[in-house]
Design goal:
The protein is mainly α. The chain has one domain. 78% of the residues lie in helices and 0% in strands. It is globular. The N and C termini lie far apart (39 Å).
Amino acid sequence: MKITLLDRLLLLSTGFLATWQVAVGINGIDTLPMIAYTVGFGVLLLAGLLLIILGFDALDSPVVVILSTIIPLSLSLGLVWEHLAAYRTLYLVFAILGFLVIVITRSVPMKNKLPVLVLAVVHGIAGMTIFLLPFLLAFTGRAAPSFALVGLGGALIGLGGLLLSFLKAGKPILSRKTILKILPGLLLLTTAAFVLGFSAA
């Protein structure tokens, strides 16, 4: 499926929001969360630019799969480091090992389902962290109510990852055409929710 002008405009808007978040940053946080959030939004920008330049065929590249893994891992690491001090080291180890295993399983040709399984587990844990933690913090009053928008962004990016994972596994929830049609808008909504939510942090 060819990428349309509307798709490019939506992806360009996504890139603009991600760039703005990188430039503005988040006030009053430690160095590691700041680095993690900056990397996450930076890679989101890069992924959008790759789709604009290369079209949807870029999604079939192992490099794009590896890059897209950095987004949920880095954002979830920033959240855990900032709000769950007791689990910092454990989650840092998970993020590093999870990323390395995905790089290995995507770099070495495998005919089994291990690459998809590894991707689903790593994305699933990172995605659920981004989804649940902001809602919990907002609900308990440890963060502003609008911080729950970060959780909404986590749910949206998790939905996108789930759709693409099942598509690559040969068991699509929706048709490839439908997934590619909604993906640019989904990325824009995800990024907007993240930016608005982090502005309340």
